[in-house]
Amino acid sequence: MVAPVAPQDAAWAIASALPDPEIPALTIAELGILRGVEMINGVMTVTITPTYSGCPATEMIKADIETALRDAGFSAIAVRLTHSPAWTTDTLSAATLEKLRAEGIAPPRRGQPPHCPQCGSAQVEQIAHFGSTPCKSLWRCMACREPFDHFKCH
Ligand SMILES: [Zn+2]
Fold first, then answer.
1. Residue 30 above 70 pLDDT?
2. How far is the C-alpha of 72 from the C-alpha of 16, rounded, in Å?
3. Domain assignment present for 140
4. How close is the Cα of 124 to the center of ligand 1, in Å?
5. Is residue 19 domain-resident?
6. Would residue 139 be called left, alpha or beta, if left means φ above 0 and alpha means ψ between -120 and 50 degrees?
């Protein structure tokens, strides 16, 4: 006998597997954007925290969650945003940081410049405040001369 899956557990499994629009190698759960899934007055309510206020990916994430849950048969869906507690790169797990590095994105290092994700060199310079997306800045390694994205600290 397999116990039936509670609706909110099924919804969590679906939402937590969704890739982040800006870093598709990571899920919104791994990035700490997905905060909670609960049934409130018959409405499957998903709570997310934007990586930073005004992040353009937030609307995309919201739409992705609504679409995925609707496809799975949920009809009453709400996605709400919470800014408390604020999202921070400090909560990213070691496994998540390693995945970022594997993607060629330098993981955040609070208060310190990033290291090159290719060769590990600390000899780096910032080229642009915004990289391929507003969540990242563009850097170049002086050792291997490769440009790379740095996931900004928040
Ligand atoms: Zn390098």
1. yes
2. 14
3. yes
4. 8
5. yes
6. beta
Ligand 1 centroid – CA 153 distance (Å): 20
- Residue 14 maps to a domain: yes
* Measured torsion, CA atoms of residues 151, 28, 102, 136, in degrees rounded to the nearest 10: -20
Find out whether 65 and 15 touch, Cβ atoms under 8 Å. Answer: yes
How far away, in angstroms, is 123 Cα from ligand 1 center?
8
What's the domain range around 98? Answer: 93-151
CA of 42 to the centre of ligand 1 (A): 52
Q: Ligand 1 centre from 99 Cα, in Å?
A: 17
Give per-residue pLDDT as tens, 3-29.
778 999 999 999 999 999 888 899 999
122 C-alpha to center of ligand 1: Å? 8
